[in-house]
Amino acid sequence: MKTTIYLLLFLFFLTANCNKGQENKIESDSDIDLIAMVKLNGKYGYINTNGEFVIEPKYKLARSFSNGLASVNINGMKVDAISGVIGGSYAFIDVNDKIAFNGKTFNEPMYFFNEYSKAFISNYNFGYFNKKGDLVKDKFSFLFDFNNGLAKAIKNEEHKNGFIDYDGNWVLQYEIENFRVEDFSEGLAKVFVRESTGKYSSDWKWGYINKTGDFVIEPKYKECSNFKEGLAIVQEKTKFNVGYKKEIHGYKVINKLGEVIIDATSYDDIYSFSEGLAAVKKNDKWGFIDNKGQEIIELKYDDVGTFKNGLATYRTEKNKIGFLLKSGKKAFDTEFDNATNFENGYSIFKGNNGKLGFINTKGQVVIEPKYDRAGNFVNPNENNIDKTANL
């Protein structure tokens, strides 16, 4: 009997410790590993979600972490008038504030995305570096990030644009006068094709190609968006009113087969889908529809954001920023002078003192407003586009 009791106690102790370890692991993955770039007293550093500095503020300029590295300015001269720096160079640091690539520096702030960083080399000369800090290829007029193994590239002197692979070789190449490409999103890239030798915008139409360059959706739209959540916004008609102000009509939502899923022609504007909902505008008021075209949240707001982490911003009658749930109800009563969409469970907000801080998805202030600038909380090892809030 005693042996059985001891065995049960041992198993209970073991299970409790295993569960404790698992809880700590979950907390670490979702919270402690997140860091944000902030500016305090004129210098940039990085904080964790407890508001503690993991890298003390000492840099004249800095960018958010992406792929384990962040770009910071070395020896530049601070200029308050433009909230920037003049001169100096840029190095990469890791999360331990160690300079990468044996101290190698670059001409401008950069970031790694999918293991490569595009870079400005000199006038009309862009190239990209690998995670060893080596220049892989340059002599491009402009470059974009790698997505799905391809990066959009432009060579003006050759009148070429298209997509290159990781070695810098053209995979898809087109004459820029008649065929212009945009970045890949969800396996498809939107392209702008000239129908004839005409000189006007009416001679150009948008369509979509796959990674082999085949048209999946033929060019026939006046405007279109990238695909998000398997859907894209296309516009078939363009109208010019008095004063030549451009008004787009004929919104439709299509899938990757080019099939119309939602006829949104009754709306004056529409955002791309995010978390299953898209913001729509009619008669100067905003609301949300689902991916079947049903109005889920009434069109009664002067302005809204997109849904992130189950919440979306809206502008209140007092010209403040609040947050909505997908049910259309207020997420919490607290309102802010300004605030960003949520990223990884946190939103940057502007306090009454004009400084920036952070709230959680319950609307609770978790880091008091005291920063002049701030970036989103990110997992430093993931792909992150630098999004600095200037609220």
Q: Can you describe what's shown?
A:
The protein has 391 residues and is mainly β. Helices cover 8% and strands 46% of the residues. A 5-stranded antiparallel beta sheet has the order 3-2-1-33-34, with no helix packed on it. A 4-stranded antiparallel beta sheet has the order 11-12-13-14, with no helix packed on it. A hairpin with a 2-residue loop joins strand 15 and strand 16. The N terminus is likely disordered.
Q: What is the spatial order of strands in the main beta sheet?
A: 3-2-1-33-34
Helical run tally: 1
Helix content: under 10%
Report the principal-axis shape.
Answer: flat
N-to-C CA distance: 67 Å
Beta-strand residue percentage: over 45%
Derived structural class = mainly beta
Mean pLDDT: 88
Q: Nearest-angstrom radius of gyration?
A: 25 Å
Largest pleated sheet: 5 strands, antiparallel
Overall strand count: 34
How do the strands and helices of this protein lay out in sequence?
Layout: H1 2-32, E1 35-40, E2 43-48, E3 53-59, E4 70-74, E5 77-79, E6 84-86, E7 89-93, E8 116-122, E9 125-130, E10 135-140, E11 142-147, E12 150-155, E13 160-164, E14 170-175, E15 179-185, E16 188-194, E17 204-209, E18 215-221, E19 223-224, E20 232-240, E21 246-254, E22 260-263, E23 269-270, E24 277-282, E25 285-290, E26 295-301, E27 312-315, E28 321-324, E29 338-339, E30 346-350, E31 356-360, E32 365-371, E33 373-375, E34 388-389
Antiparallel strand pairs: 1-2, 1-33, 2-3, 4-7, 5-6, 8-9, 9-10, 11-12, 12-13, 13-14, 15-16, 16-17, 17-18, 19-20, 20-21, 21-22, 23-24, 24-25, 25-26, 27-28, 29-30, 30-31, 31-32, 33-34
